[in-house]
Amino acid sequence: EAQVTQNPRYLITVTGKKLTVTCSQNMNHEYMSWYRQDPGLGLRQIYYSMNVEVTDKGDVPEGYKVSRKEKRNFPLILESPSPNQTSLYFCASSFETAGVDTQYFGPGTRLTVL
Amino acid sequence: QKEVEQNSGPLSVPEGAIASLNCTYSDRGSQSFFWYRQYSGKSPELIMSIYSNGDKEDGRFTAQLNKASQYVSLLIRDSQPSDSATYLCAIVAQKLVFGQGTRLTINP
User: Fold this and answer.
1) Nearest CA-CA partner of B71 in B103, B19, B26
2) Cα torsion B80, B86, B91, B96: sign
3) Is the Cβ pair B44, A43 closer than 8 Å?
4) Which of the four pLDDT bands, split at 50, 70 and 90, describes residue A2?
5) For residues A36 and A46, is the Cβ–Cβ distance under 8 A?
6) How many CA atoms lie within 13 A of A108 on its CB side?
7) Which residue of B has its CA nearest to A104?
């Protein structure tokens, strides 16, 4: 089954404790991205990657890191989480650059930083 | 001015009626327009895409695009309770940008 998977689905952590949210897709997609969704603000892009070893900042990259060592994986790293990073996070992938092709979203990761 | 604007709602529509969702955008160079549906606690799923002026129909859904007026809309005919969700408008100009979404409730 074609899908985007994220882990964990739910995470409660404390300020400053490094965490990684994994994202994996099995569709051989070139383009992957991370979004956060907050009430009243919609989906905002954090980082995106157009191919292996190619990543770039989205609209709200501060406090986040990403890497793209393999085509299928695009982990999101929070080196020192803070409460303002409490949010719902989605990973998405598409065959071509987002907008030209359908984006497939993962199930979401609900993160709470205390 | 926000790049993509939607009325956050909630929009309440009786079952069987037409639900009308609207979206305006600021970048006249926008070329691609999408509507995503998002059920509570779930991820967005693409339901319609439109690229040229006019109407595009897919089952009970019709997307309408007017580039001169910079708006895109989604009509849902014969609304069902299962259509209750948040609908996200997304536009591509330099990049893909989402609106904040309109929460739609269909009342039986």
Assistant:
1) B26
2) negative
3) yes
4) confident
5) yes
6) 16
7) B45
Which amino acid is present at A71? Answer: K
pLDDT averaged over consecutive 10-residue blocks of chain B (108 residues)? 84 97 92 93 93 95 96 97 96 85 95
Which of B41, B46, B95 faces A102 most closely, judged by CB atoms?
B46
| Three-state secondary structure call for residue B44 | coil
Q: Do A100 and B92 touch (CB under 8 A)?
A: yes
Q: Which residue in chain B is spatially nearest to A5 when comparing CA positions?
A: B43
Per residue in A8-64, pLDDT (tens digit) is: 999 999 999 999 999 999 999 999 999 999 988 889 999 999 999 999 999 999 999
The rounded radius of gyration (Å) of the Cα atoms in chain A is 13
In the three-class reduction of DSSP (H, G, I as helix; E, B as strand; rest coil), residue A84 is classed as helix
Residues A67-93 pLDDT 10s: 999 999 999 999 999 999 999 999 999
Q: Which of B90, B62, B7 is nearest to A98 (CA)?
A: B90
Q: What angle do CA B62, A103, B85 make, to 5 degrees?
A: 50
* Rg of chain B on CA atoms, in Å: 13
Q: Do B43 and A108 touch (CB under 8 A)?
A: yes
